[in-house]
């Protein structure tokens, strides 16, 4: 894992000191709320419906056991004993008191964590594939380059007041698990004709009120030129992005209004000027950062075969866990394990302090001290020996974390919604809870197969509803919460925005509506191997529209 | 009819202005301002602003029902109750030094 150098440590330490004094002055009445608000937001401290919310960055979703234990400590000492993992691979605490925030940030700094740039119109936490560094299908581990982007974008003087927030996502694998085409910039590892690895750059993707699939602006940018290329994009955006209208201020609108060719022309012109200059990444520096992400000291376990079918007979719950929650690892004899934070009837993404500590213990014992947060609001033990899977499963079960539903219908992304969020128009968590109870039976979930439901409580789309195979968007209409259902969204490399098929439903009707969509899919699929999204692509809207609204 | 609500500075807790000028946790204790009390409402906002101790001050439309004060927006009803899908508890509460008066 990356370790802070003296610059990182000094910069985070200074910020804690500054913010502590700002909090003190606010409480003493020396700063007004108008003066204080931008300062607290710069440090990840929001005000929500019931209390403050502190958002803490988890750079590219990578955590050590020590860091996870500190999050548990924060949850227990300053909050209500739990935290909420988000689609930005970050964690949020929902109940901190203002006076405690300096102490929280100081505790976090002691394990190289912070809340800087988790809010505001700047470059936010870079997100990556949660299996980065572990996945069998990976061309390259994207995290060293993500770390370099973090360093470049942290307090970048030119890009602290962009027209709007800016999100970069990366995948080192051609199978995109990081939704890179729905970010302001998406980077996808590519191999060129000479066999060198670099980055395909997508720009202008996003969700929110104007969902857009990112457009390919450059098919291959070498590592050494990547920062100059990113800087060129940011500079053009910073210059021309619309500051007159908050709803049109994201880069997706600029790219859309200008047209890709025009935008690209501007970027290329900028790039021609700065290419080969101060932002050229020395390959020694890349090597130096890569050393922090060196492969762990894998043991050679020889040939290990796990007979999942046999395990399913012996212990169906464990068999199901093996089937759903393990992911092919690049190293023979190992697996990446998804820890589902989606218990039936639970709040998606929540973990208690005790659960965080249990996960930290398991990471230390069985996963080379490494943990990941996924954008799907789960955790990952990235490097587990196949011979340890049973022990890991038992450890997770003891902590109430052995739900074997990764990738299934009950593994939903859900924003906090109107239960917490000051921007929401409708609740999300109770909808997710109802749906998960409806589809709780393992046999039923297995019959349905891979299906992604994503729920947002407002048009800002934190719950990624546009890219759910089934998406649910909560709106308020005449004092009632109403839920629009979309079908056909896809956050993967086959990026697509879901379509609204008709009028919305009241909360009580949502589980039935989802059930009708699922039944229509099962009735129409060509064979049990055809997934929901594949069936939708083949069949189009008609059968799903009929399932929701009848034949009229 | 309107009530005044905001969040107390130190705790962030949702609070309501009562008839005696105290910011309280209970919605039902809130002072209800009639249509002809716009001036009093503005004065209360200004006085609260001057304390610097209540943030995100908003006036909210309510109606009176048999059960008492009923905010028209769902958002306000949830703010008054706490999360409807709670993990272990209800709303943020005020510590002794977190009560504000104007």
TrEMBL record, chain A:
InterPro entries membership: NIR_SIR_4Fe-4S (IPR051329), NiRdtase/SiRdtase_haem-b_fer (IPR005117), Nit/Sulf_reduc_fer-like_dom_sf (IPR036136), NO2/SO3_Rdtase_4Fe4S_dom (IPR006067), NO2/SO3_Rdtase_4Fe4S_sf (IPR045854)
Keyword terms: 4Fe-4S, Heme, Iron, Iron-sulfur, Metal-binding, Oxidoreductase
Superkingdom, natural source: Bacteria
Domain (Nitrite/Sulfite reductase ferredoxin-like) ranges: 52-110, 343-399
Iron among keywords: yes
Domain annotation Nitrite/sulphite reductase 4Fe-4S: ranges: 119-272, 410-523
Pfam families xrefs: NIR_SIR (PF01077), NIR_SIR_ferr (PF03460)
Keyword Secreted: no
Single GO molecular function: heme binding
Protein name (record): Nitrite/sulfite reductase
């Amino acid at each position: 894992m990356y370790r802070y150098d003296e610059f990182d440590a000094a910069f985070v330490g200074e910020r804690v000191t500054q913010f502590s004094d700002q909090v003190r002055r606010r409480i003493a009445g020396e700063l007004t709320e108008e003066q204080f608000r931008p300062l607290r937001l710069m440090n990840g401290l929001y005000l929500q419906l019931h209390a403050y919310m502190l958002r803490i960055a988890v750079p590219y979703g990578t955590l050590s056991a020590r860091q996870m234990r500190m999050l548990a400590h924060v949850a227990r000492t300053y909050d209500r004993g739990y935290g909420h993992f988000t689609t930005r691979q970050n964690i949020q605490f929902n109940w901190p008191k203002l006076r405690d925030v300096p102490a929280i940030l100081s505790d976090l700094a002691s394990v190289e964590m912070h809340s800087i740039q988790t809010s505001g119109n700047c470059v936010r936490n870079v997100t990556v594939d949660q299996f980065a560094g572990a996945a069998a299908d990976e061309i390259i581990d994207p995290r060293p380059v993500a770390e370099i982007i973090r360093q470049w974008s942290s307090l970048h003087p030119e890009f602290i007041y962009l027209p709007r927030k800016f999100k970069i996502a990366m995948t080192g694998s051609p199978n995109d698990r990081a939704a890179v085409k729905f970010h302001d910039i998406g980077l996808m590892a590519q191999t060129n004709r000479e066999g060198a690895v670099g980055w395909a750059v997508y720009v202008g993707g996003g969700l929110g009120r104007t969902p857009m699939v990112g457009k390919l602006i450059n098919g291959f940018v070498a590592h050494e030129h990547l920062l100059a290329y990113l800087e060129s994009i940011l500079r053009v955006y910073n210059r021309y992005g619309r500051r007159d209208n908050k709803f049109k201020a994201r880069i997706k609108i600029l790219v859309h209004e200008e047209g890709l060719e025009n935008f690209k022309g501007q970027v290329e012109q900028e790039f021609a000027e700065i290419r080969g200059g101060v932002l050229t990444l020395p390959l020694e520096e890349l090597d130096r950062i890569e050393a922090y992400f060196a492969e762990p000291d894998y043991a050679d376990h020889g040939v290990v075969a796990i007979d999942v079918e046999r395990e399913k007979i012996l212990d169906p719950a464990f068999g199901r866990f093996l089937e759903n929650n393990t992911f092919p690892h690049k190293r023979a004899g190992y697996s990446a394990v998804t820890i589902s934070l989606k218990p039936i009837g639970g709040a998606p993404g929540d973990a208690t302090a005790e659960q965080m500590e249990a996960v930290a213990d398991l990471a230390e014992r069985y996963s080379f001290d490494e943990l990941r947060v996924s954008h799907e609001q789960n955790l990952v033990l990235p490097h587990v020996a196949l011979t340890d899977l049973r022990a890991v499963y038992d450890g997770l079960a003891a902590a109430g974390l052995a739900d074997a539903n990764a990738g299934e219908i009950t593994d939903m992304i859900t924003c906090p919604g109107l239960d917490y969020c000051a921007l929401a128009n409708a609740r999300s968590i109770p909808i997710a809870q109802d749906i998960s109870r409806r589809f709780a039976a393992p046999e039923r979930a297995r019959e349905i197969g891979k299906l992604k439901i994503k729920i947002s409580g407002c048009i800002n789309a934190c719950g990624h509803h546009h890219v759910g195979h089934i998406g649910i968007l909560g709106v308020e209409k005449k004092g009632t919460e109403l839920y629009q259902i979309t079908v056909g969204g896809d956050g993967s490399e086959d990026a697509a925005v879901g379509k609204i098929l008709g009028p919305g439903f009241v909360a009580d009707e949502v589980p039935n509506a989802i059930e009708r969509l699922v039944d229509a899919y099962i009735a129409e699929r060509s064979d049990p191997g055809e997934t929901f999204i594949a069936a939708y692509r083949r069949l189009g809207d008609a059968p799903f529209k009929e399932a929701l609204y009848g034949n009229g | 009819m309107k009530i005044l609500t905001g969040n107390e500075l130190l705790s962030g807790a949702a609070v309501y202005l009562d008839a005696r000028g105290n910011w309280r946790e209970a919605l039902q204790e809130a002072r209800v301002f009639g249509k002809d009390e716009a001036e009093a409402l503005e004065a209360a906002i200004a006085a609260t602003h001057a304390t610097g101790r209540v943030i995100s001050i908003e006036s909210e439309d309510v109606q009176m029902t048999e059960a008492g004060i009923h905010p028209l927006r769902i958002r306000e009803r949830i703010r008054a109750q706490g999360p409807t899908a709670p993990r272990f508890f209800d709303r943020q509460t005020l510590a002794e030094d977190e009560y504000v008066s104007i």
